[in-house]
Amino acid sequence: MVTVLSDQFSLxxxxxxxxxxxxxxxxxxxxxxxxxxxxEIAAFEISKSLEQKEIEITTPLDKLKVKEVAVQPVIxxxxxxxxxxxxxxxxxxxKADCGFVAAYRKHDANDYFSIKQDYLTCPNVDGRxxxxxxxxxxxxxxxIEAIKDLLNHGKPSQLHIVAAIASNQGVETIKxxxxxxxxxxxxxxxxxxxxxxxxxxxxxAGDLSYxxxxxx
Length: 216
Fold this sequence. Notes:
The chain is an alpha/beta fold. It has one domain: Rossmann fold. Helix content is 33%, strand content 33%. It has seven helices and twelve strands. Strand 11 and strand 12 form a beta hairpin. The longest helix has 20 residues, at 28-47. The protein is globular. 36% of the residues are buried. The model has no long low-confidence stretch (mean pLDDT 92).
């Protein structure tokens, strides 16, 4: 299943417009906050599908039977670009456990790339909802590599993938690889460039959040 958040929440369009706009992108705090906001909306929507349990609490006047999340999810992201989107999800699902993957595109002299993954740490995801935050779902290659490694930590009860901007190709690739996953995207762009970048896209989400990196 694929849910395009900008179709349901008009404010998501405003946030994505600001993420894309070169006149706004120099404001790193606003860029990170808009990514967080998209993560918060996604977390709110994901929460509707989480299993609940009944507990009893005590108010100042009485005891009360209420419902809350039965099994806390595991929220993961790909460093470093995914951190603001991840933080937005964690703002709402704040009792979740967390995992992190370090992956990057290794470019050759012609600017074509392969995926390099250096590091992964994650709690046991067996029987728990797994949420993976990646701000730009372009080809889907790095996301698939990350998910494959995350699934070595157990079989999740649900798989949710959250992206701010996705390409049609990236969405289709993930759907084919993980047909039971629910993909939550801010917006879907039609095209990838010949070198695998989303267009019109927004540029490099990591650089725009935290500053330009040294090339590896």
